[in-house]
Amino acid sequence: MRLPRSHSMTKRADFLRARKDGQAKAGRFVVLSTLADPALPHLKHAVITTRKVGKAHDRNLLRRRIRAILQLHGARLADPRRLLVTIPRPGSATASYAELESDWLKQAKRLGLLSA
After folding, report:
1. Which domains are seen in the chain, by residue range?
2. In terms of Cα–Cα distance, which of 24, 104, 88 is closest to 50?
3. Which of 39, 51, 69, 97 gives the lowest tally of CB atoms within 10 Å of its CB?
């Protein structure tokens, strides 16, 4: 799945709505929040990295890795018309790509996002 700029969440209200009204599951390395919205034409995603995660280069690396995971597994989403927020947890900067990917997939399955 390609992630064009139009699929990025840019409004603060969307972030807050996904976090407040949606479902969230926390894993060892990421917190995944989602909210189904039939009015959306496609998936809107966001990656929120705070300074608690690490230095700037660590945060940038995590953003790139999470976008790569979403590009790889985004086509498997059962209903792509939703808001999806991924928040790396402190300590995730030391995780390998495989560990980050498995944790993201585990949380997505717990939320029922992935189709068979």
Report:
1. 5-110 (3.30.230.10)
2. 88
3. 39
